[in-house]
Amino acid sequence: MSTASNQVQVPATGDLNAAIERLEAATAASVAERALLAAERTTFAGERAAMVTDLTTMREQTTRLDAVTHELEALKAQRAAVAIMEQQQAGQGHREYTGMAQLAGYREAKIERAYDTFAAVVHDIACLKWGRKLQFGRLAEYVRDGQTLGTGTDGGSVVPYPILEEISVLQEKFGLARRLCSFVKMTAHKMGKNAFGSDATFTYPNESSAPAISQVLLRTPRGELEAKLGVVNMKMSQQLQLDAPLSLQKFYMDRLFTLAGMEEDRVFIAANNSPSPWYGVLYHPDVPVMPCATQSYGGIIAEEIVGTLHKVSKHVRGKATWIVSQDMIGVMQGMKDGEGRPLWSPMGAMQAPVIYGRPYEDTPAMPDREAVVGDEAGKPFLACGSWKDAAIFGDRMTTAIDFDGSVYFESGALAIRLMVDFGIYFVQPTACARAETSA
User: Fold this and answer.
1) Residue 316 near residue 62, CB atoms below 8 Å
2) How do residues 363-395 score in pLDDT, each as one tens digit?
3) Is residue 293 within 8 Å of residue 239, measured between CB atoms?
4) Cα(127)–Cα(155) distance, rounded to whole angstroms?
5) Looking at the 3D structure of the chain, how many domains does it have?
6) CA distance 79 to 90
7) Is the peptide bond before 277 cis (omega within 30 degrees of 0)?
8) Domain CATH number, residue 233
9) pTM of the predicted model, to two decimals?
């Protein structure tokens, strides 16, 4: 940029041509300087626009990088699972057991990560409620982009779907129904389900003839998988919610998910048209029954336990898992089969605990021993089946957390509510069975 003076001294007398020439030269220099300034301004504007574009690009790249990171973690999980399955198929004793231990460790790591994620999400939802700055930022991108699924009138908020996908593993920890059954993401409260007339069959079709009526019926929807909204309510300290470390927030998260998981298991196992139209495996009218000769759990014999397993369809019997109570494990500990082998085997150095060679799950949803022996008559007490073939667990994937500070305003407490929307349906009851005492 020129710094020369644009002022021209005009002589009082003499020839004016020289002065006019100097004036024209100064004017031309001023015009050139103005053009230079305009060019520099244009350059600065372009650089600023480029910087804004670069910043936007960096944000987009960061978002894509986060998505790729999640995908890589999922691929690592799949690779670890495949490696463990290969070890199991190889039947390499100690290596197989070690692989299972590694898989269990990986699952625990995923659960811990889900804990932290969900605690951060719940904390930020509470911050939105009370007008505080988001501390962890897991909700920031959804708030910025208007992607939150909903906000309640009392300040509650629905967990955004991408985050819910990440923390769904946490819900599996608190109930066996989600883990054992075939899991379906429901897109509506009611969804059609296919009819099953019998076990699968193999045929050589005649291509020149019309399909049999039975083949047509198998393609016809019958009934519906229905989801119902369930709510868990809890009172907690507002100070704990907003200012406590995340590790303390696991306490109430456990309480909420434990109660939700217990109800899901109750429906899966012991529902008796409660709520309608749900029936669990212990009361479903189409589930095969192994009748026992005794009226008390203490009088059950090993042949009746083994007979329950053989009530399961032979096509899926090899994939069966027992469902028992802790009391029934105690009853079976001393039982032996016809060849003198223990029916129940504890966990050894190379294997997991089993009942008659099949794995088992224990749950409070199964019946315990009664204080009065006569109260055990005519009741189901044991279940076995290939649960992914037998039942469907549907989830609307709309788990929500709501807050309300008005009801406990004076005590400085906060009402917190967990809402789940799920449904269970036995699509192939012959893939499982139950045992009942004599009436």
Assistant:
1) no
2) 999 988 876 667 888 899 999 999 999 999 988
3) no
4) 10
5) 1
6) 17
7) yes
8) 3.90.1690
9) 0.65
pLDDT of residue 417: 80
Residue 121 belongs to a domain: no
For 416, list phi and psi in degrees, rounded to 5: -125, 140
**Segments forming the whole domain that contains residue 227:** 173-197+214-439
Of residues 154 and 266, more confidently modeled: 266
Backbone φ and ψ of 85, nearest 5°: -60, -40
Q: Report the distance separating Cα 192 and Cα 31, nearest Å.
A: 79
Residues forming beta bridges with residue 344, ordered by sequence position: 355
Taking the chain, what is the end-to-end CA distance rounded to the nearest angstrom? 106
pLDDT at 85: 59
DSSP assignment of 109-121 equals HHHHHHHHHHHHH
Residue 416 included in any domain: yes
Tokens of 391: 């039942």
Distances (CA, A) of 438 to 28, 97, 299, 375: 114, 40, 11, 11
pLDDT, position 149: 40
Q: Where is 145: in which H helix or E strand?
A: helix 140-145
- Residue 90 maps to a domain: no
CA distance 437 to 261: 28
Helices (H), 271-386: 302-310, 326-332
Is-contact 124 134, C-beta < 8 A? yes
User: Nearest Cα to 179, choosing from 106, 119, 265?
Assistant: 265
CA angle 230, 234, 236 (to 5 degrees): 155
CA–CA distance, 250 with 410 (Å, rounded to integer): 25
Residue 392 lies in a domain: yes
- CB–CB of 335/343 below 8 Å? yes
Apex 42 CA angle, 40 and 44, nearest 5: 70
3-state secondary structure of 317: helix
Q: What is the pLDDT of residues 13-59, one digit of tens each?
A: 556 677 777 777 888 888 888 888 888 888 888 888 888 888 888 87
Phi-psi region of 357 (alpha: psi -120 to 50; beta: other; left: phi over 0): left
